[in-house]
Write a structure and sequence with these properties.
436 residues, alpha+beta, 11 helices, seven-stranded antiparallel sheet, two-stranded antiparallel sheet, globular
Amino acid sequence: MRRIGLCLTSVLFLATSVSAQSYFEEEPILYGKRPTTDRVTQLQKQITEGKVKLKYDSKHGYLPAVLKALEISPSSQILVFSKTSFQLRRISPRAPRAIYFNDDTYVGSVLGGDVLEISVQDPNQGAVFFTIENYKSDKPRFDVQNYECTSCHASSMTKGIPGHVVRSVYTAPDGQPILRAGTFITEDSSPFKERWGGWYVTGTHGKQRHMGNVFSPSRDRPYELNRDHGANLKSLESKFNVDRYLTPHSDIVALLVIEHQILIQNLITKANFQTRRAIWDQQIIDEALNRPADTYSAATLRRIDHAIKPLLQAMLGVKSIGWKDPVKGTSNFTKEFSQKGIKDRKGRSLRDLDLKTRLFKYRLSPWIYSEAFDALPEPIHERFYQNLWLILTTENSEEPYNHFDKGEKKAILEILLETKKDLPGYWRNGGNTATF
C-alpha cells in the first residue's frame, strides 16, 4: 500500500508512539473502526450509488470536481513550497503544493501528482484521511488512509489526537526544510515573525513581517531571512507560473483562518476523546463496585473540566495575539467566508472578520456552530455553556477572560441567543449557574 498523508503542516515528523496511538484505537474511541459520517464518506456513498459523478479535467484532473462536490471554494487556495509532503519530489518553489479547505474538509494537490490528498473532520472520530487517484477512471473513489496518515497526524503536534498542524520552517532555495534550525507550530498565539516559513503569502499586512515568500540564504545561515523582501506581496507571478493553478493567490486571510480552524478542531476532538474516556472509565468502576450509574464522580467531573478549559479559552481567543497593522487578502476568500455566517437580526455574525487588530470582530470562534462541536458529549456542552454564560454576563470577568469589553460581550451574547438553537434554558431566562 502506498504510504501517504495529507500534511497541512510545513514539516512532517514521525512522532507518535505506539502507546499514544493505541489510546484512540481502543475503546471507547475505536478510531478507524467505528463508522464515520463525515463529508467525504457521504460523498463516496453518493458516487457508489451513482448519484454523483466526478468530471475529469484535462488540466487539473479531478481537483475541480472534488472541490465542487465537497463545497470548497477555489478562493481558499494556499500554497506551500517547502518539500514537506510524501510527494516532495514534485514540490518546489517553482511548483508549490496547493491546499483548499472549507469549515471541515481539506484537499491537497501537487502538480503532476499521483493522488489528491483529502482530510475531513468527522464529528466523532476527529480527522479522517483519504486519497483519490488523479488519473481518469470509470470509477474514481476515495480510499481511506488513516493508518498511514496518523503516523504523522496523531502526535504531540496535533495534541495527541488524529488532527492537523500548521508549521513554519526555515526553507532552503530548493524547497528543502532546514529542520536543524527549528520549526514553529502556527496557532492564534503565534507572532507574525514566526509564521508561514515555507509558504507563499499574498496580501498586505503593513509593517509586520513574517517568514513567507522567502528562503534562507544557505543551510549554514538559516536565520538570515530577508523578511522585507517577502512582505506585502500582492502577486506571485514572479515566483512561479500561476496559470497552472486554479487561482493566482495564497491568501493571507485564508492562512489566518485555517490556523485558527485547525487549533479549534484539534481541541474539540481532544475534549471529545478525553471526556468519552473519563465516562468509560467511570462506567467500568461503577460496574466493578456495583454502584448505580446515575451521577458522575468528582474525579470524572475534574477530568471533563480539564478537557474543556483549553477549548473554552481557545474559542474565546484568550491567547490570540493582536496585530499592529491591518491585514487584507488578495482573493474573494474574505467576502465568501463572512457571507456564510449565521446572522442575527442586526446582521451580525461570529464569522464577521475584523482584520484591523485581530482576526474576528466578535471573539467567540464560529466553530461553535460546527458538527464536531454539536457532537461533543453532553457533559461538555453542559459545563461549557455554564462557563461561557458566566463569562458573557459578568461585568468584570477575571483572568484569563478579562480581554472583552462590555459591548463585545453583549454582542456575542445577543448573536448566540438568536442563532444557536441548542442553548440551555437559563440562557434565555437569565438563570444562574456554577463555574469551574
